């Protein structure tokens, strides 16, 4: 087989990849669940390991030729255990949803009661959201946040005592506070529930010491590896000592649920190797500094936005993300601001806010995060510039109002996207952002 580079083999795809690289270089990636990996992580991800089939676990594979793959997976496991202070780690889940599905298969039976933070209140689809497998096969009793973004623990406790859940989730996708591991553990222990911490968003902050570690309080930890951890797109399920004390076979049950329990078959070995690389990077002094800077930047950005008159849920942030509350501009306004920001060179995402008067499809808020821009080396002073750009973009769309009729709404948003693409003020901002970004090259 003739050796051809990507450019030689498929110049069309090669060109599109270069365009994506240029888009990232020229703009600000501020979706909280996105980051920029290191060159070393990308090298592992693009290695020959992608060719190998390795169903099973180290020393117990269904295919031959896995001696080296075994060493790679064991190394990833050991680094995960060291980084998160846990006795067991499964590094095979292909993404966050399979990881969380494995937890259900390991500790729940169909029809069991589960509790998780409501999706519209910042929770995750797999924590019992209506219309998902987690609500279809289990009885979901969601808990909610108040208008200020805080969890009413008294109400959570009352619901837990009444419904006696088998499993309680702590963790969310749009929650600007520290995750309340201790408070939720007290409730879970009182009713005898498994407590699972989904730290997909804050895993890197946990390793860096910029967010509390849940290992002391929960039985199981799940996480993706590509957000603040800055690794490849993958996931892990970890069992704590508290989990093993509750059920000595819990680690075995988790492993069996991942494979061969039906969540997936062969692991992606190139992904496993890249996770191992990311975990090694995360246990360095440089990464600890990075994790703390992510939080410093988020707090500085939230404060600067507030000073511009922009309302922030909870009045700020304690982690890597913040929620802009746009209900003052009419329900569903997040749709307009997200699109306008993208035209200006800032990639963020529309998001529901507590007590949102609209729907998740047309939410009234916007979610901003600092992991990726911090990876590029930006600091607090740069956050002030970003806040100014966000405020200027908001000024261009603040008078828009989402129409009530659903069919007309689709047409309205479609026309808005065409119109906003020609906005000269946004084009000017995009050039200013490009100039800032030129001072902060990507890490690959």
Taken from the alpha-carbon principal axes, the silhouette is: globular
User: Gap between N and C termini, in Å?
Assistant: 29 Å
State which percent range the strand residues make up. 5-15%
CATH architectural grouping of the largest domain:
3-Layer(aba) Sandwich
* Main beta sheet strand tally, sense and closure: 7 strands, mixed
Alpha carbon gyration radius: 22 Å
Mean pLDDT: 97
What level of helicity do the residues show?
40-55%
| Structural class by sheet pairing and helices | alpha/beta
**Low-confidence runs of at least 5 consecutive residues:** none
Structural commentary:
The chain has 444 residues and is an alpha/beta fold. It has 2 domains: 239 residues, Type I PLP-dependent aspartate aminotransferase-like (Major domain) (Aspartate Aminotransferase, domain 2, 3-Layer(aba) Sandwich), CATH 3.40.640.10; 143 residues, Aspartate Aminotransferase, domain 1 (Alpha-Beta Complex), CATH 3.90.1150. It is built from 18 helices and 14 strands. The strands form 4 sheets. The chain has a 7-stranded mixed β-sheet with strand order 4-10-9-8-7-5-6, with helices on both faces. Helix 9 links the parallel strand 8 and strand 9. The longest helix is centred in the middle third of the chain and has 23 residues. The protein is globular, with a radius of gyration of 22 Å. The model has no long low-confidence stretch (mean pLDDT 97).
């Amino acid at each position: 087989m003739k050796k051809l580079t990507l450019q030689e083999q498929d110049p069309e795809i090669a060109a599109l990849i270069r365009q994506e690289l240029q888009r990232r270089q020229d703009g600000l990636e501020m979706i909280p669940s996105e980051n920029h990996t290191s060159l070393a992580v990308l090298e592992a991800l693009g290695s020959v390991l992608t060719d190998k089939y390795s169903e099973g676990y180290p020393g117990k594979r269904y295919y031959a030729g896995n001696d080296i793959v075994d060493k790679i997976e064991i190394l990833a496991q050991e680094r995960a255990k060291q980084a998160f202070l846990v006795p067991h780690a499964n590094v095979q889940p292909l993404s966050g949803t399979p990881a969380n599905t494995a937890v259900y298969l390991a500790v729940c039976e169909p029809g069991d009661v589960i509790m998780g933070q409501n999706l519209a209140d910042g929770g995750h689809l797999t924590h019992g959201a209506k219309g998902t497998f987690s609500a279809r096969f289990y009885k979901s009793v969601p808990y909610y946040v108040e208008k200020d973004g805080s969890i009413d623990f008294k109400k959570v406790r009352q619901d837990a005592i009444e419904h006696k859940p088998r499993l309680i989730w702590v963790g969310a996708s749009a929650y600007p506070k520290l995750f309340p591991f201790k408070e939720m553990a007290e409730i879970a222990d009182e009713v005898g529930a498994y407590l699972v911490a989904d730290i997909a968003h804050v895993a890197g902050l946990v390793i860096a010491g910029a967010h509390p570690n849940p290992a002391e309080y929960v039985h199981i930890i799940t996480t993706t590896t590509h957000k603040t951890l800055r690794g490849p797109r993958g996931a892990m399920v970890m069992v704590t000592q508290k989990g093993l004390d509750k059920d000595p076979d819990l680690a075995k049950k988790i492993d069996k649920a991942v494979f061969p329990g039906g969540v997936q078959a062969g692991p992606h070995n190139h992904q496993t190797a890249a996770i191992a690389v990311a975990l090694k990077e995360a246990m360095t002094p440089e990464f600890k500094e990075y994790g703390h800077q992510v939080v410093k930047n988020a707090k500085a950005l939230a404060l600067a936005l507030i000073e511009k008159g922009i309302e922030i849920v909870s009045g700020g942030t304690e982690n890597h993300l913040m929620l802009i509350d746009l209900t003052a501009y009419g329900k569903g306004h997040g749709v307009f601001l997200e699109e306008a920001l993208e035209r200006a060179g800032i990639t963020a995402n529309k998001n529901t806010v507590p007590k949102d008067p609209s729907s998740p499809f047309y939410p009234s808020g916007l979610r901003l995060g600092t992991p990726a821009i911090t990876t590029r080396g930006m600091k607090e002073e740069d956050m002030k510039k970003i806040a100014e750009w966000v405020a200027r973009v908001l000024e261009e769309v603040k008078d828009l109002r989402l129409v009530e009729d659903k069919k007309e709404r689709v047409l309205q948003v479609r026309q808005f996207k065409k119109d906003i693409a020609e906005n000269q003020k946004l084009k000017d901002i995009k050039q200013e952002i490009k100039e800032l970004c030129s001072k902060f090259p990507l890490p690959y």
